[in-house]
Amino acid sequence: MQPLAGILVVDLSRYLPGAYASRELLRLGARVVRVEPPEGDPLRRTAPSWDRMLRTGTESVVCDLKHDPGLARALCRRADVVLASDELSGHITGELVTVAGGMEGRTIHPG
Question: What are the structural domains, with CATH classification, of the chain?
Answer without folding.
Answer: 8-108 (3.40.50.10540)
